[in-house]
Amino acid sequence: MTRIKICGITREQDLHAVAHSGADAIGLVFYEKSPRYVSLQQAVQLVRAVPPFVTVVGLFVNPSVEYVREVLAQVALDVLQFHGEEEPAFCAQFGKPYLKAIRVKAGVDLVQCAARYAGAQGLLLDAFIEGTHGGTGESFDWALIPHDLPLPVILSGGLHAGNVVAAIRQVRPYAVDVSSGVEASKGIKDAAKVASFINEVKSIEL
Predict the structure, then answer these.
(1) What are the chain's domains?
(2) Known catalytic residue: 91?
């Protein structure tokens, strides 16, 4: 079964809706330029409300070592997700499993990326939009993803209930990751959209 991560959680009611609908993981954004950014205080309160068996992923973009350690000292994260230009050694130094986001466009060698970040739990593949680090709601050409990647693929970028079935059938990812595609506005999730997205994913027989 394709796993599901709902990213950019900022409110406890959204967290409950996401967990109730059957998501496997939630994402908390620790990047101040994002409209979905959460403070340490917000993150602590949200994580306290996470039910059992829901993975908590912390998203960072080119953070300092000190900032990641500060977050980890206060917030019970299960997995780290790096969306910037972080080197493999940087990502691996915190004693936590990590995902490396790759912004996909023609010419990006994903097999080489997988080899470079061989210590990652998986590659999160997102759309390349100049000047951004994800969360744009834009999709990319899924045909650019080779079928022989040695790491699990988490497919992101412009997914929503209307296209996620086609995406899964074409890419066969380990997981899908959605944020803007299930929102009422930036950082505010729409419970009906969340439920519809998750139902679509769970309806697929591969």
Answers:
(1) 3-203 (3.20.20.70)
(2) no
